[in-house]
Amino acid sequence: MSDILLGKGEHPVYLLPKYGNRHGLVAGATGTGKSVSLMVLAEGFSRLGVPVFLADVKGDLAGMSQAAGTPGDKLKARIDTIGIADWSPQANPVVFWDLYGKKGHPVRSTISEMGPTLLGRLLELNDTQEGVMQIAFKVADDNGLLLLDLADLRAMLSHVSANAKEISAKYGLVSPQSVGAIQRGLLKLEQDGAGDFYAEPALDLADFMRQDMNGRGVINILSAENLILKPRIYATFLLWMLSELFENLPEVGDLPQPKLVFFFDEAHLLFDDAPPALRERIEQVVRLIRSKGVGVYFISQLPDDVPDQVLGQLGNRIQHALRAFTPRDQKAVKTAAETFPPNPRFKVVDVITQLGVGEALVTTLQEGGVPLPVEKTLMAPPRCRIGTITDEERATVRSRSPVGAKYDTLVNRESAAERLAQRAQEQASESPPTPAKAGRGAPAPAPPAEQGGFGQTMKDWLFGTRRRQGAIEAMTKTTARTVGNQLGRQILRGILGGMSRSR
Q1: What's residue 495's pLDDT?
Q2: Strands, DSSP E only, in 211-321?
Q3: Contact 254, 19 (CB under 8 A)
Q4: What is the pLDDT of residue 431?
Q5: What is the pLDDT of residue 501?
Q6: Do the strands 12-15 and 4-8 form a parallel or antiparallel pair, or are they unpaired?
Q7: If we measure between CA atoms, which residue out of 79, 43, 84, 46 comes closest to residue 63?
Q8: From residue 134, how far is each of 120, 153, 324 by CA, in Å?
Q9: Which of 242, 137, 150, 245 is nearest to 196 (CA)?
Q10: Which of 200, 203, 403, 486 could form a disulfide bond with 411, CB atoms 3.0-4.6 angstroms apart?
Q11: Does the pLDDT of residue 479 top 60, yes or no?
Q12: Average pLDDT, stretch 350-378?
């Protein structure tokens, strides 16, 4: 059977692959089994040959790369109760990713691929500032300048600001205030670690859509333990990834099974910290990406952590236990109960707080897209390890990756920052500063000789200045006067001597 077995209530509960692209939600309080349900779904899609992407915000999903250990008595009892005849420990084909390149292959994109519109929305620029961003990208395109990283974009903005008069006349008004606002936004983005994200080689989403040699879909795990603490970078990545996916995948209509499935663990962190642009983009993607064969599943604690515009699009739901300790919790329980198709055998609002670990209320879309009446379900166990892995195990999995050679080496091509710096250097060397013409009252240009320090002092002492005679001139005059006086006295003595002798 190709259906994904989720567990067993009064009857076995399945998720039909043909409705896997109708999206879904896994919710429940901490420690109730959400991560295990996520693993069951991801494994099920992988066995069908469907590639999977998921964000691991706690580090406990990495165990999907390892086979489960020998089942204990409790696990055997659960397997027998559900009726899984072919259960056996099994590792999954996993590729690890990490925006920082530490726990997986680096995930990168370029400024050009992000585009001015998405960057403008990400930085929450106003219309005027976004217009300046558009101009910077246009000037770069017209001049053949590549915008790859943040340094390129900064250099381009500085170039636009320095040549604002000429650029404004051709492309539209560029104000220093708008450029400054964009630069400040980029600085904040870089402080959050975006410098590691904007680089080459850029991620090709086709590398997410792989199968292993046995025909199983590859499970792509993004290490997000640190990334989730920097929501702006997390939002940047998701915004770019979902936009690229939405824009590049062709329309395929309804397929027998999805082409790709995304799981966003701890979705409440995503929506709570995401800028409005990301929320808008996610809502758009969830509404329209079904026809491109992609399923999106959110994992969070409370159903109302997901915006109503998104929640209404989620046809497959797994609800683990909720705790009604506070007024907000009680409201959340009531809201969650109202979102499920009723079952005459029990009241959802009562059962939802009494579920044990590994139990859930499940509804999936059945034939014709009709939702299954909510079923209290004992969830099936995954066949992989539940929990973290060692550094050695992670390194082994990474060494077997088919895409490691493509992404592990950073590529630094000549781009806008280098080209603009080279251009400025050439202009400076070709156009040396011209000395100013000395006018009336203007100081004369300094001679090319040494013009400062001890040398200048000696020169002034020897040759003098405009206001003071030098030592050589003074000595000349003194010598002349001395020679003149002596000669004069000799002549005078001669004359006087002759006069006395004549007497």
Answers
A1: 39
A2: 219-223, 260-264, 294-300, 316-319
A3: no
A4: 67
A5: 44
A6: antiparallel
A7: 43
A8: 9, 12, 50
A9: 150
A10: 200
A11: no
A12: 93
- d(CA 224, CA 480) in angstroms, rounded, equals 93
Q: How confident is the model at residue 182 (pLDDT cuts 50, 70, 90)?
A: very high
For residue range 33-44, what is the model confidence (pLDDT) as tens digits? 999 999 999 999
Tell if the pTM clears 0.90, that is, is over it. Answer: no
The residue extents of the domains of the chain are: 4-108+200-407, 111-196, 453-502
Contacts of 497 (CB under 8 A, 6+ apart): none
Rounded to whole angstroms, the Cα distance separating 70 from 99 reads 34
Rounded CA-CA distance 152/416 in Å is 5
Evaluate whether 173 touches 137 at the Cβ level (below 8 Å).
no
DSSP annotation of 304 reads: G
Q: What's the rounded Cα separation, in Å, for the pair 457 and 151? A: 47
> Could you report the per-residue pLDDT of 50-81, keeping only the tens digit for each?
999 999 988 889 999 999 999 999 999 999 99
Provide the β-strand partners of residue 263: 54, 297
| 462 pLDDT tier (thresholds 50, 70, 90) | low
**Distance separating alpha carbons of residues 473 and 479, to the nearest angstrom:** 10
